[in-house]
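Write out structure tokens for ABC-2 type transport system ATP-binding protein.
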Amino acid sequence: MLRVNGLYKKYDDFEAIKNVSLYIPRGVVYGLIGSNGAGKTTLLKTVTGIFEKDRGTVTLNEKEIYENVEAKKKIFFIADNPYFYPGYTVKDMANFYKTVYETWDEVKYERLRGIFKIDENKKVRNMSKGMQKQVAIWLGLSTNTDVLILDEPLDGLDAVIRQRVKKLIFHEVIDRQLTVLISSHNLRELEDFCDYVAILHSGEVILEKEVEKLKSSIFKVEVAFNDGMPEELMKRIKLIKAVQKGRMWVLVVEGERIEIEKTIQSYNPILFDIVSLTLEEIFMYEMEGIGYEYENINY
């Protein structure tokens, strides 16, 4: 398991990561979402041991990662802009990783070569950003590490390749309990891909939950009453947001669906509908709740 506890990272006077704690079980896909400048990349690079933390602990199977060569051999990190040595071909990079990762799987490398259909003798730096991302994922999966950490891995890929990459990662999770930590602005991509999600804002985790539990605990309600919204009802439900549109109210409510329905129905509404929210909508309301302008988010 990958565990982050009380992590704090500062650049001069800027607090990039503030007391972040995460628990990432083995064999899950864990999504990290947040606005630009939220601290996602800093967090990932600190978790992988690239950056030194100021306080807190980052452990893999209860062993500290920073300056621990054996622990780092169990982790492969793919940055938003992957680094490749100048003049190196895909094959050159593969040969390099063979010397670093004892878990390198040559059979898997050859199988993935047939899937990605990229010339392994071509210099990687001469490729487009999208092709470089594919090469990084190809090499990363071939290392066969226990943990794969990805910073915006689907950015720059077309729809077909995105689905192919997600399917490959998903099979690794199922087949050998690969643990995946992934950051992305694309909430729609994470919704059907992640088991857990954390929302990071200004270096702090403001929400962490299983995706299915999160989506089954926050609902949008449209409701209307003959004599207006009962004040007592507003006090009985856990209200995140309320907007009045004529006689109808649009509410965002947290809680168990059955209990929400039962409570609202007890006031005899003339119109009532309740629907689950998408991950994107949940993110929007959570960010609005702390005063962030959602329109500023680039995803």
